[in-house]
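hey m, so remember when u said the tokens were messed up on ur end? i reran from scratch. heres the input so u can diff it against urs
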Amino acid sequence: MPEGDTIHYAANRIRPVLAGHVPDALETPHRRFARDRWPERLGGRTVESVDAHGKHLFLRFEGGLTIHSHLRMSGSWRVLDWATRPPGRPPGRSTWLRIRRGPKEVLQFNGPVLELMTESRTRFDQRIAGLGPDILAPDAFDYERFLRRLRQDDPTRPIGDTMLDQRILAGIGNLWKVEGCFQARIDPWRPAGTVSDQEAIAIVDACRPRMQRSARDGNQTRFKRIYGKARQPCPRCGPVSRIEVRGQWDDNRPTYWCPRCQT
């Protein structure tokens, strides 16, 4: 699943193309949108902003209409420049949204959450309004709100799984959960109730600057120290300890950790 930095990176690429402009064309090629009339409803409207919160992306049009996207496991955003590419249509079956301005085109593939909402609905829909603070917020991170929601959750839940709860902290996915716990030297299997506020904050602070950098340049791979490296030597302990992996909590997401240096 694309994580928050991937979504913010997409927003950062889309914003210069669309924000403050009226698109030249908007299409919804997928048959599920055949009766929704998005081109007619959004035609001639300026894109007022392109925003992201956690794993959600918003294209806000004048007149109080917003395209809301969540990519889940299968979706993706792309920005193409047809001035430097041969003409032709992108893959039609998997294209859900196409927005063109000049030689550039913004495309969304394979949804699965792509919907046109009123701006007021985005403020009350609990999938959005219920999100915790965004770890990629451009301003100061709301530590107080994060800790309050953390302490309202099940204290027996492993801290690694708790950090994935978007109601507590928006934007972190399984990769960053693993890398954040490793960087902070915290065992992802510890019950959240035994993790101090300072330790929980250390996980956030380990992820936040790295995710912000990835959101700027799209290079997430360089931060993978232990994710996907089961049975390899720990990059901190060396050959005396090897990275372990096991599925965690209800979703059974593969969790990597070093049993020696993460306590």
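this time it looks ok to me. The chain has eight helices and twelve strands. if urs says something different then somethings off w ur setup not the seq
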